[in-house]
Design a protein that fits this description.
The protein is mainly alpha-helical. It has a single domain, classed as Farnesyl Diphosphate Synthase (Orthogonal Bundle). The protein contains 15 helices and 4 strands. The chain has helices at residues 4-7, 12-26, 31-42, 48-60, 65-88, 100-126, 130-154, 161-186, 191-215, 229-232, 238-245, 249-261, 266-279, 281-300, 307-321, and strands spanning 93-94, 97-98, 219-220, 225-226. The protein has a two-stranded antiparallel ribbon with strand order 1-2. It has a two-stranded antiparallel ribbon with strand order 3-4. Strand 1 (93-94) and strand 2 (97-98) form a beta hairpin. The protein is globular and about 60 Å long. The chain starts with a helix and ends with a helix.
Length: 324
């Protein structure tokens, strides 16, 4: 499987220029704020969201200033939600670095999140990018709804599969869908093309989340044991839902009891992981993941072949084959 660096080759120059523009979009005359945004910029991740924006733009037309604004807008709003998430989750670490709230406390972290949100809104409004703002604002709304739906349903721990897909469609897939739609929109593509790109991104996002679910049941190479983190956090993943839907009432109650009341007991968590593995839940989730990947490819192949389309296809493959 190609490395991300190879996959991004057709857009490498655009990513480099985007990074400069993104850093510029966060600047502030308040020294403390500038220090914090500089810290945020330095610990950026794989840059997959901007990659989806630029590939979508390259497939639908020509990458231009509007494409850079689309990528910056998505990164600003997404970074704002991550900063707020760390406050809500009382999390001290993100991507191996200290979180903003760990270093500067909750009040400052919330204000920084608000600042990033406002910078995103202003970036769009100052350049009359109303259509881009609509796409990204819809995604932000869906992400919030998805999180709240998950919290509401997690109390019962008896989620039906269609509810699970609704949660991940909103919580995870809506952001990748907005990257693809915004990329298409930035090139002046027609409504039908933008919708198609949005749908491709949604399918990719669902496959991406199922891959994340599967990590919970796969061996952690460092300790030789599965992670079980989602079980500890009482998150309902697809392999677990499949197992609960295909087991008798007594067994089901026993597993739900562990997830609810004994999720910090490594022995009991490992028993649940073992039951999920024996139930065929891993194979089922893997099959579903590949189905959604194929749905994305089927729509993608409706666009003419090009280096951009080929790299986009490799990026989609990367999302389901990655090992972290």
């Amino acid at each position: 499987m190609p490395h991300l660096k190879e996959i991004r080759t057709p857009i490498a120059e655009h990513i480099a220029l985007f990074e400069k523009k993104f850093r510029q979009s966060m600047k502030s005359k308040v020294p403390l704020l500038d220090t914090i945004t500089r810290y945020i910029y330095k610990r950026k991740g794989k840059q997959m969201r901007p990659m989806f924006v630029f590939f979508a733009a390259g497939i639908c037309g020509t990458i231009n200033d509007s494409s850079y604004r689309a990528a910056s807008l998505i990164e600003l709003l997404h970074t704002a939600t991550l900063v707020h998430d760390d406050v809500v989750d009382d999390s001290n670490v993100r991507r191996g670095y200290f979180s903003i709230n760990a270093l500067w406390k909750n009040k400052i972290a919330v204000l920084v999140g608000d600042y990033l949100l406002s910078r995103g809104l202003l970036l769009a409004l100052e350049n009359n990018e109303f259509d881009l703002l609509k796409i990204v604002s819809n995604a932000t709304r869906e992400m919030a709804e998805g999180e709240l739906l998950q919290i509401e349903k997690a109390r019962r721990l008896d989620i039906k599969e269609e509810v699970y897909f609704e949660i991940i469609r909103k919580k995870t897939a809506s952001l990748i869908a907005s990257c693809c739609a915004a990329g298409a929109q930035s090139t002046g593509a027609d409504t039908e093309t933008i919708k198609k790109m949005h749908q491709i991104g949604e399918y990719v996002g669902i496959a991406f989340q199922i891959k994340d679910d599967l990590f919970d049941y796969q061996d952690n190479k460092l300790i030789g044991k599965p992670n079980g983190i989602d079980i500890k956090e009482q998150k309902m993943t697809l392999p677990l839902i499949y197992m609960l839907n295909n087991t008798n009432g007594r067994e089901k109650r026993s597993v739900i009891n562990v997830v609810k009341n004994h999720n910090n007991n490594p022995g009991k968590v490992n028993q649940v992981i073992e039951k999920v593995n024996q139930s065929g839940g891993i194979e089922y989730a893997t099959q579903k993941m590949l189905e959604y990947q194929q749905k994305a490819f089927d729509l993608l192949y409706q666009f003419p072949e090009s280096p951009m389309r080929n790299s986009f296809e490799q990026l989609v493959s990367f999302t389901v084959k990655r090992n972290k």
